[in-house]
Amino acid sequence: MAKKDVKKSEIFGWAMYDFANSSYTTVVISFVYAAFFTKFIVPEGSEVRDTYWAIAIIASTIIAIVLSPLVGAICDYTGGKKKYLFFTTISCAITTAALALAHPGQLWLAIPLIAISNAMFMLGESFVASFLPDLADDDNMGLISGLGWGLGYFGGLASLAMVYAYLGDPATQVNEEIVSRNQMSMVFLGAFYLLAAMPTFALVKDRSKPKEGWEGASFARLMGAGMTELKESYHLARRYKVLFQFLLAFMVYMAGLEVVIKFIGIYANDELSLPMSYLQILFIILQLSAAAGAVGFGFLEARLGAKATVMVTLFWWMGGVLAIYFLNVIAGILGVDPNNVFMGIAVIAGAGIGSIQSSSRAVVGLLSPADRSAQMFGFWGMFSRLAIILGMTFGPVSDMVGRRTALLLVVAFFAVGALMLWRVPINEQIEANQKAKLAEASD
User: Fold this and answer.
1) Under 8 Å CB-to-CB from 63, ≥6 apart: which residues?
2) What's the CA gap between 368 and 381, in Å, rounded?
3) Is residue 428 domain-resident?
4) How many structural domains compose the chain?
5) Which residue, 414, 371, 368, 373, is CA-closest to 390?
6) Phi and psi for 226 in degrees, rounded to 5?
7) How many other CB atoms sit within 10 Å of the CB of residue 281?
8) Which domain, by its residues, includes 351?
9) Contact present, 75 and 130 (Cβ < 8 Å)
10) Are 145 and 293 spatial neighbours (Cβ–Cβ below 8 Å)?
11) Phi and psi, residue 99, nearest 5°
12) How many DSSP H helices and E strands does the chain contain?
C-alpha cells in the first residue's frame, strides 16, 4: 500500500488534509459564497457580476503563481515542509473567517479577503502534495493520491452539510437574515478547516531535510536562493522536458475544470434557477460522485496508467459539458424536466472531477526528482493557477454572450488539453526514471 517506513495512520493523516481543504473550495469557491457574492456583495444593478468574481479569483491566482515556485524552492533548501503547510493553513482559515466582515456592496473588502484566503489554500495544496513522493512508491502513487482526493470530497460534503444546516431556507428569510447567516457561516468554515487539518500535523512525518550547508540559513539568504532557482526555471524546463510538457497540457485542460468548479454554483443558481432543495441535492450528488470517481479512477489508473486515465476523464467531461449545453434538447427528447436531466448529468460528469485532479497529481509525483519534490509541486501549483487565470476568461465571455454559449469555451479547453496531453511521452519517461533508479540502487 505504501513505502515500508510509512504507516497506514500516516497515509490517513495526509489524506485528512484533502478532507480539510476541500471544505474551503467547496463552500467558498464553488457553491455557497460564490453565489452569495454575485447576488449580495456585488452592488445591486451591476451587469458584470461574473466578472467581479473572476477578478477575485484571478487576484488570488496571481499571488499563488508568484509565490508557488519561490516558496517551493526555499522549502527544498530548508526542509521543514510541515511548518510551511501550517502557516498557509492557519492563514487561509483566518481570512476565510474574516469574510464575515464583508457586507453587501463592499466589493473591495471581500475581493482582497478572497484573494488572500484562496492563495493560501492553493499554496497549502502544493505543500501537502509534495509529501506524496515521501509516502508512496511508483506503483501505488495514483491509488494513494486518489484515496486522499476521494476523502476530500467527504470533507466538502461534511462542511457543506454544516453550512446549509445553519443557513436554513432563504425563501423564509428577509435579506438581512440571509446576509447575516452567510457571513457567520464563514467563521464556522474557517474553524472547520483548521480543526480538520490537525490529524495531518499530528500523524504525518516531515522527512524533508535541509540541503548541506543550508542549516540555519538566514531569511535573506533563502530568499536569494529561491529567486535564483526561480530565474533558472527555463533551464529546469529543458532538463525536465516531459514534466513541463505535461504541465502545459495540464494547464489547458484544468482551465476547463476550473470553470466548472468556480461557476457551477452560479450557473445552477442563476441560469437554471434551481430551487434550494435542488441545489442542496446537487451539491451532495457532486461530492459523492466525485469521491467515488477519485477512488474508482485511482484503481483504474493502476491498470491503465496515469496518462490514459486522464485522457478518459477528459473525454468524460467533454461529454458532460456538451450534455449541459444541449440540456433542453435532451430533456425534450426524454420528455422530462430539464432540472432532473441536469441532476443526472451531474451524477455522471461529477465522477470525473476528482479523477482529473488526482491522476494529474500522481503524474507530477512520478515525474519529479526526489530532491526537488517541493519545487516541482510548486511548479504544479503555478501551472494550476495559470489554468485558473485562463479559465476565468469564462467570466467576461459569459457576460458578453451568455453562460450557455460560453460552455463551448469549456469544451474547447478540454479538447485542446487532451490533444496536447496525447503528444507527451509520459509513460516512456516514467519507465526511464524507474530504470535510472534501479541503476543507481545497484551502484
Assistant:
1) 115, 116, 119
2) 13
3) yes
4) 1
5) 414
6) -65, -40
7) 14
8) 8-202+232-442
9) yes
10) no
11) -60, -20
12) 20, 0
Model pLDDT, residue 440: 65
Which run of H or of E encompasses 201? helix 198-203
Q: In this structure, what CATH number is given to the domain that contains residue 409?
A: 1.20.1250.20
Residue 352 belongs to a domain: yes
Closest by CA to 318, choosing from 400, 260, 405, is 260
- Please answer whether residues 40 and 186 qualify as being in contact, where contact means their C-beta atoms are separated by less than 8 angstroms: no
Q: Which residues contact 409 (CB under 8 A, 6 or more apart)?
A: 259, 393, 394, 397
What is the pTM assigned to this prediction? Answer: 0.72
In this predicted model, what pLDDT tens digit does every residue of 377-405 receive, in sequence order?
777 777 887 888 898 888 888 888 888 89
Inter-residue contact 105 to 360 (CB < 8 Å) = no
Q: How many CB atoms lie within 10 A of CB 143?
A: 20
pLDDT digit string (tens) for 198-214? Answer: 999 999 998 877 777 77
Closest CA to 68 of 422, 385, 402: 385
Contact in structure between 176 and 168 (CB atoms under 8 Å): no
SS3 of residue 359 by DSSP: helix
208 assigned to some structural domain: no
Whether 186 maps to a domain, the answer reads: yes
